Amino acid sequence: MQDRLHILEDLNMLYIRQMALSLEDTELQRKLDHEIRMREGACKLLAACSQREQALEATKSLLVCNSRILSYMGELQRRKEAQVLGKTGRRPSDSGLSAERSPCRGRVCISDVRIPLMWKDTEYFKNKGVLLFLSPDLHRWAVFLLLQLGEDIQDTEMILVDRTLTDISFQNNLLFTEARPDFELRLELYGACVEEEGALAGAPKRLATKLSSSLGRSSGRRVRASLENAGGSGSTPILLPTPAVGGPRYHLLAHTTLTLAAVQDGFRTHDLTLASHEENPAWLPLYGSVCCRLVAQPLCMTQPTASGSLRVQQAGEQQDWARVHGVLKGTDLFCYRQSEDADAGKEPLFTIAINKETRVQAGELDQATGRPFTLSISNQYGEDKMTHILQTESRGALQSWMEALWQLFFDMSQWKQCCDEIMKIETPAPRKPPQALAKQRSLYHEMGE
């Protein structure tokens, strides 16, 4: 039975690798190979570990690796479908012609996630407000977050939760670097009930062809649904075989999906969809909400989108023209004395605001030879209107500037509030290797030291 299981697993992994090779996508091949090796290592560690902390971490790693492999498989099937349709001259979608413009990508960061708990008074308090300390019959949960945006899947550290805590707090900053403005960030909370003797209780070793049996019924349903939806090519989905080793069982406790509308340079509270309690009577009592900081940085706000030599007639000056080096970045057109000043980070001579209310108008493109190629940029400040006239050196340069400005306006319309001002994103610190699983500190314990 064990040999058959290993053969089934090897065949599935071989099929996944062959799909990646057929598309000649070296980056996707590299990602798949990495996760397959990580999965193999997690399976070996889970089979060998004897400590509770090791088993919890190994099972968590296995769940994350499986999720990433399934995500990459879905991407492989989508690309395979596009490749086949491209050869036959058909479009992947019958929705009509694709949009002429595509919005810029951006970075999305979620941080300071807090999930409140809702213990009953009899569970949290005892004897007129004295805190109930940890006891052998007290249920504890090892929990972590799994977050997915597109094919990118990330996870938080794992923490231990018991009835002395009023909320679950994750301090990780998770950064997604290839987000579109129509992104959907799915947040999932997983948990394993931890008991002194139950954490390493071996499950019956049986031939398993479904991933769900190793992750719990709730998470298994999600994985099956995501895999079935990922394909769309009509072929039978590939299911990863389950390692025939015992270990903790993780359950999907709650989930939510965050979109561009949730982005704000501050903390917001969002609703959580709670999973059913049918699998475990001692379910972690979630309040049904999550608080976090979700910010986004479109590339148009952080990287220059156009630059070049310009002659500018400033508002109110009918005769004088200033020759400058213009740099379009974010919601400003910076005008420097020379290009070296921009490269050195010096202050510009002046700045022209470009926002959602700015009006841009180009001069005639079919002007006679020798006539200047111009465009005007107008901003309204109360009752006052300020207009700058820009001259370019050629018709091609004028077209390039106009294209950059129209693309910026399009990006602003798609990224919305993210283009009002640059939101701060802190670079996530490198992940440290898992330490011995430690319970979160409660305020009561911190005050007692």
TrEMBL record:
InterPro entries: AHD (IPR012966), Cytokinesis/Rho-signaling (IPR051364), HR1_rho-bd (IPR011072), PH-like_dom_sf (IPR011993), PH_domain (IPR001849). Residues 303-410 form the PH domain. One of its GO terms (cellular component) is actomyosin contractile ring. SUPFAM superfamilies: PH domain-like (SSF50729). It comes from the Eukaryota. GO terms for biological process: actomyosin contractile ring assembly; mitotic cytokinesis; septin ring organization; signal transduction. The keyword Coiled coil applies. Gene3D superfamilies: Pleckstrin-homology domain (PH domain)/Phosphotyrosine-binding domain (PTB). Residues 10-85 form the REM-1 domain. Keywords: Coiled coil. One of its GO terms (molecular function) is GTPase inhibitor activity. It holds the Pfam family PH. PANTHER family: ANILLIN/RHOTEKIN RTKN, RHOTEKIN. This is Rhotekin. It comes from Molossus molossus. The lineage of its organism: Eukaryota, Metazoa, Chordata, Craniata, Vertebrata.
